[in-house]
Design brief:
By secondary structure, the protein is mainly beta. It contains two helices and ten strands, in the order ββββββββαβαβ. Strands 1, 2, 3, 4, 5, 6, 7, 8, 9 and 10 form a ten-stranded mixed β-sheet that branches.
Length: 143
């Protein structure tokens, strides 16, 4: 499925009703010959950044429920490489990861908002060929 690539959104179909992925939209950030990775973009997490112990000095900032994998870590997507070093370019104006201290600084002191920075708890991951198979079987549609 050559249409799958970083920057593409996929939306779950009724085939995934009753699962974690019911009514989800996922942004694909990696799709290569090793894996596919994405983040659910339409499910807020039940806590804000400042409610997490290690970030209790931060301003309130929304967190997103990025997916069922590795829910012990935060993952960042941002559009501010001018403020945040070390991000991996996903698309022309979108970066994955980066210096978390600079992410917090951008939020607390530089006025960065959730249109420029999104923080996710967990992610979605697929082994080689898995996501293509799920699209082929009708679990996901590309949007």
């Amino acid at each position: 499925m050559s249409d799958l690539k970083p920057g593409i959104y996929i939306k779950s179909t009724d085939a995934l009703n009753g699962s974690f992925f019911e009514h989800t939209t996922i942004l694909i950030v990696k799709h290569n010959n090793e894996e596919s990775v994405g983040f659910v973009t339409n499910t807020p997490f039940q806590k804000s950044l400042h409610e997490l112990i290690e970030f209790n000095q931060s301003k309130p900032f929304p967190l997103m429920d990025g997916g069922p994998v590795d829910r012990e870590h935060l993952f960042v997507l941002h559009k501010r490489p001018d403020l945040i070093d070390g991000g991996e370019q996903v698309t022309q104006n979108l970066y994955l990861g980066g210096n978390m201290d600079q992410v917090i600084e951008a939020i607390n002191n530089r006025g960065a908002n959730n249109q420029e920075i999104q923080i996710f708890i967990g992610y979605c991951g697929w082994d080689v060929g898995e996501l293509e198979a799920e699209v082929e079987e009708g679990s996901w549609v590309l949007i």
